[in-house]
Here is the input.
Amino acid sequence: MVQKVKRAKTAHEALSALMRLCARAERSSGDAIRLMRGWGLAEEEAQQVLARLVRERFIDDGRYAEAFVRDKMRLSGWGAYKIASALRAKGVAKGVIDEAMKQATPTDMRDRLISLLTRRMKTMKYKSTADARQKLLRYALSAGYDFSTARDCVESINLGTADDEETFF
Here is the structure.
């Protein structure tokens, strides 16, 4: 298998390229480091380029994390666990993540989850209400919501007729 090798860049070229990229969309410092490594930039030069981008406010992990939380919560319907995990994977510091997650209030998260589960119910196939509850619970957990919130939201949804009263929570 042939791998495509990116053209090596100098520190000046990397700085210019990252300034253009950051002007179009928010980037984290981890994103910038990964790009520079792919361009074959030495670690010391990469740190200098990153320091300049941060100093000139092209890159701000706090701003990036806040926008990421807002987008993933409202547009993608992700839960707190999935959002925090994705930010950690992007190289954002734990303190920055914690600060950004403060905008995701439990009430907003709960309302968003109920909306997602209600929409999911319309397309889901199930044999019994217990089966529907299990599928909805798995769906909520895979979206990054904690178990107690997921369970409460699943229980609050009207699943139609109660053909079996058994519950698995």
Q: What stands out?
A: The chain has a mean pLDDT of 88.
